[in-house]
Amino acid sequence: MSKVVRASLPPQSMLHGIKQPDDFLDCYRCETTVDVDQAANRAMDFPMWVTWLMKIRNIVVTPFGLRTDLGEGETIGFFPIVQRNDTEIILGFDDKHLDFRISILTDGHHAYGATWVRRHNRLGRMYLAAIIPFHVVIMRNAIGRIE
User: Fold this and answer.
1) Torsion sign across C-alpha atoms 42, 57, 72, 19
2) Low-confidence ranges of the chain (pLDDT < 70)
3) How many beta carbons lie within 10 A of that of residue 126, not counting itself?
4) What angle do CA 140, 120, 84 make, to 5 degrees?
5) Distance between CA 118 and CA 99 in Å, rounded?
6) Could you write out the three-class secondary structure of 4-64?
7) CB atoms < 10 A from the CB of 103, how many?
């Protein structure tokens, strides 16, 4: 696994076009020379424990009316592709409690994995607070799988 460090969102990221001051955003970086498609596929090839966490999440959120189907169309890992260009793939979905995006971006020397969340209500704030510890471990490991 490559060394993963916390990083600033690269200025060329498409996430800059949607981020507002109150939104959650974090970003991690590792060294790599792979292209964005390889980077995204490696990052989103989650281990079994993450798959099980997603299944538990779906069971827990169903009574609250949150989405358990994460969309149609082309996906990488669990998540639908929302946008892409030659160096960045944006995955994610919108729900009533929050909107969520993952950016995988490469620049020829580094791969970046950023997560953006816009919370819509109290449920969104509580949900994000509950998953942050898992999110940090999952994203750091995901970016570390890119070499």
Assistant:
1) negative
2) 1-2, 66-68, 70-72
3) 13
4) 50
5) 5
6) CEECCCCCCCHHHHCCCCCCEEEEEEEECCCCHHHHHHHHCCCCHHHHHHHHHHHHHHHHH
7) 25
